[in-house]
Amino acid sequence: MQATVKWMDGAMFIGESGSGHTVVMDGPEDLGGRNMGVRPMEMLLLGVGGCSIYDVISMLKKSRQKVVDCRVELQAERADAVPAVFTRINLHFVVTGEGLKESQVKRAVELSAEKYCSASIMLGAAGVEISHSHEIVEFAAA
């Protein structure tokens, strides 16, 4: 895996993934940015969410659960000192579907947390307190 981050001006950077996708990162205006993109630490948090939700959806599909929507809501706390590292992250999954089994959703979230999500496992190993929760919403067809 590879990527490139290029400085544009002020506090703006363009990141390009090895697969050819780009993303704008920028800082707040008071630090020379123009607030035109996500902050690098926000990007890191989004990466944790993306890695985890990919695992959860993949496992639920393999177990033939009828998922119609899923989101992960991330709450993070950072240290008050420099470096302002993450100290805690909670991933709360909201899974919507038809007749979803609680045990399957719980197991998918646990497996992502304990075995598959490289991003959250890596941050946990570095001392970040990572927690997971979930809820199931029954899909009501119109």
UniProtKB/TrEMBL annotation:
InterPro entries, per database record: KH_dom-like_a/b, OsmC/Ohr_fam, OsmC/Ohrsf
Superkingdom of origin: Bacteria
Name of the protein in question: OsmC family protein
